[in-house]
Amino acid sequence: LVEGALTSRKMKTGNESILIPLKTDQADAARDSFAKLVYGYLFNWLIAQTNANLAPSGGMDFD
Q: Per its UniProt entry, which superkingdom is the organism in (predicted)?
């Protein structure tokens, strides 16, 4: 599923769809974009988990 999405694109013609293979540079760009997206989500999740685990349990007032 992911491999197909990164190596081809779907084109609708009338009532049918055809898959058009991507050129190597287009497939490389799709792969890199997907990797950046996954890395971004993973990084944000990791930071949220770290912040949740390091947060004081009773809450602190910094007045």
A: Eukaryota
Task: Say what the pTM is.
Answer: 0.71
Q: What is the dihedral of CA 11, 12, 16, 19, to 10 degrees?
A: 10
26 by Cβ neighbours in 10 Å (0-12 / 13-18 / 19+) ranks as middle
pLDDT in tens, 6-59: 999 999 999 999 999 999 999 999 999 999 999 999 999 999 999 999 988 876
DSSP symbols for 2-63: HHHHHHEEEEEETTEEEEEEPPHHHHHHHHHHHHHHHHHHHHHHHHHHHHHHHS-SS-----
